[in-house]
Amino acid sequence: MKEQIDKNNLPAHISIIMDGNGRWAKRFMMKRSAGHRAGATALRRLTERMNADGFKMLTVYAFSTENWKRDDEEVSYLMGLMHEYIQQYINDAKKNNVKMTVIGDMSRLEPSLRVKIAQLREMTADNDGLHLCIALNYGGRDEILRAVNKAIAGEHSSPLQETDFAKYLDTVGTPDPDLIIRTSGEMRLSNFLLWQAAYSEFIAMDVLWPDFKIEHLYKAVAQYQSRERRFGGR
Ligand code: FPP
Predict the structure, then answer these.
(1) Is the previous residue joined to 177 through a cis bond, with omega within 30 degrees of 0?
(2) How many CA atoms lie within 13 A of 35 on its CB side?
(3) Distance between CA 93 and CA 60 in Å, rounded?
(4) Assign residue 87 a region: left if phi > 0, alpha if psi is -120 to 50, beta otherwise?
(5) Is 19 designated active site?
(6) Is the Cβ atom of 119 under 6 angstroms away from ligand 1?
(7) 97-107, pLDDT tens digit by residue?
(8) Would you say the CB of residue 20 lies under 6 angstroms from ligand 1?
(9) What is the pTM of this model?
């Protein structure tokens, strides 16, 4: 059952660190790849429900700049999964009304995946339902460094203010996350949205990502709504 939440006070932007695919697969004595596939399905299911329930923005951590350290088989499976799911999102672009963007360093991705991502962005640009942002080959430090380098190369008034700097980040034009959820019970940001997370509320949930459902999201939102946010003031 869904927890009661105040629909007039939804977090404008929720971010999720989708963790626990490997442990989920292990539980069923399956390969890690099966956990990632189940994780991708959990994401599709969740975005459909969030879109129907009027949520505005979700950013998910799908592949970090550090995930290349995993063995070749797992990395190539994950990249294949991105291809497959991005193609599905392209097929459903008009029907779903979900706007989709991708953040991260695209330069290391296969050209064919980059083409699909560009197509996905373009085809969903005018959708006005949920905005789903996928962090792919994303690292908070990497994003900040790329932004610094763009700022150095560009023309801007100096000294640079926070709002000026934010324009160089991958997340330009989007609100900072109000709520960051991490599944599987771990309590780390793992290089996710380091700049943007300055005043995000953090909730760690004891559920493995493939098992995550809209009910878990409602539980987190209810907890978020019970907190007082002061942004450093009193
Ligand atoms: C962390 O679990 C999960 C990942 C590194 C990959 C997340 C990717 C998906 C859920 C698929 C997303 C698909 C699309 C199309 C966006 P883990 O492997 O670290 O799990 P463990 O800690 O239990 O080993």
Answers:
(1) no
(2) 19
(3) 18
(4) alpha
(5) yes
(6) no
(7) 999 999 999 99
(8) yes
(9) 0.97
* pLDDT of 234 above 80: no
Q: Which of 6, 9, 19, 176 is catalytic?
A: 19
**Beta strands across the sheet bearing 99-103:** 99-103, 131-138, 57-64, 14-17, 179-183, 201-205
Q: Decide: 75 and 33 in contact? Cβ < 8 Å.
A: no
Q: Is 67 in the pocket of ligand 1 (CB under 6 A)?
A: yes
User: Which one of the listed residues 53, 67, 127, 211 is annotated catalytic?
Assistant: 67
Measured CA to CA, the distance from residue 104 to residue 82 in angstroms comes to: 14
Query: Hunting for tokens 């497959």 — which residue is that?
Result: 84
Cα of 218 vs its chain's centroid, Å:
17
DSSP-derived secondary structure letter, 136: E
Contact 147, 171 (CB under 8 A): no
